[in-house]
Design a protein that fits this description.
The chain is of the alpha/beta class. It has one domain: TIM Barrel (Alpha-Beta Barrel), CATH 3.20.20. It is built from 13 helices and 14 strands. It is globular, with a radius of gyration of 18 Å.
């Protein structure tokens, strides 16, 4: 065991071995839980790392109690580029924010000694685009992801989760940036939509293209999250499994968002969601979890389904 900032960090786990033994269950929506807990209009989720640390800690605990094997740090928007895009984010130090978020997550794991649990350092998109759509450069992207990954590593992340990438080019730069500062496993999830001719990211990337390029770039696991609800994610799981033998992770949304009285709600029930996740597992997923709209109750129902499958 290696010690970082007073928190014990597992350095002896083998991700491939874990995936051979069971289907890993990731947690659900962090943003969903923070919004339910009272995120204000002028706040960003990452600010809770400082202002409401105990509540953030308890969200991690609730997901572990529900049966999650992997909890994700509250750092989806904590790259330097993303933070600087808002007034609230510009007030936060990117490196300190990522380190503290990882330490909080590791602290939650300390309550559950004896269980094989992992902290995933969460890395989301910058919110900017490469030319010709935008002005983001490859060097800028890789640098911001490199700095974020280094801080997450220092805070105690076991693995890295690059997620919700709508542009394969940005996903690749994130992967490269992480691998420049850490040898820990890296998971990459793109976000696809279902079109008449198949599944595509916003920038037109296909599952086949994603699988080929991410495997060549050295990702340890790939997959998809967000945009799609659980039922159409079943077909994507089938298609992605047909393209690669790599480990696969899928984290769909809890249905499509509905705006009611100015607030966004997701209407799918935990039971229906878990049934679809079971089908995704049967299509060859090695890891599953939830994205927008999912809560600990969703993760609890998935755990029950996985136990029924003997996973």
């Amino acid at each position: 065991m290696k010690k970082i900032t007073g928190v014990r960090v597992s350095m002896n786990f083998d991700l491939k071995k874990l995936l051979d033994e069971k289907i890993l269950l990731f947690d659900g929506g962090m943003g969903t839980m923070i919004i339910e807990a009272g995120l204000q209009e002028n706040e960003i989720p990452e600010s809770w790392i400082y202002s409401r640390r105990e509540e953030l800690f308890n969200i991690h605990v609730k997901y572990i109690e529900a049966g999650a094997d992997v909890i994700q740090t509250n750092t989806f928007g904590a790259s330097s580029i993303k933070l600087s895009s808002s007034r609230a984010g510009a007030m936060l130090d990117p490196e300190e924010t990522n380190r503290k978020a990882a330490v909080i997550a590791r602290g939650a794991l300390e309550r559950f000694k004896g269980r094989d649990l992992l902290v995933a350092g969460d890395i989301g998109p910058t919110g900017r685009f490469f030319p010709p759509v935008g002005s983001l450069s490859e060097d800028e992207a890789r640098d911001t992801f490199r700095r974020q990954a280094r801080a997450l590593d220092q805070g105690g992340a076991d693995i890295f989760l690059i997620e919700t990438m709508s542009d394969l080019r940005e996903a690749v730069e994130a992967l490269r940036g992480v691998k420049e500062v850490s040898e820990k496993p890296v998971v990459v999830e793109l976000t696809f939509d279902k079109k008449p001719k198949g599944y595509f990211t916003l920038m037109g990337n296909t599952p086949r293209e994603a699988a080929e390029i991410l495997e060549r770039e050295g990702a340890d696991m790939i997959g998809a999250n967000c945009t799609l609800s659980s039922n159409p994610m079943i077909g994507l799981a089938r298609e992605l499994r047909a393209q690669t033998d790599m480990p696969l992770l899928f984290q769909p949304n809890a249905g499509q968002p509905v705006l009611t009285e100015g607030k966004t709600h997701y209407t799918q029930s935990p039971d229906d969601f878990a049934e679809d996740i079971e089908r995704i597992a049967r299509e060859g997923a090695d890891a599953v979890g939830g994205c927008c709209g999912t809560t600990p109750e969703f993760i609890r129902k998935i755990r029950e389904k996985l136990e029924e499958l003997g996973k």
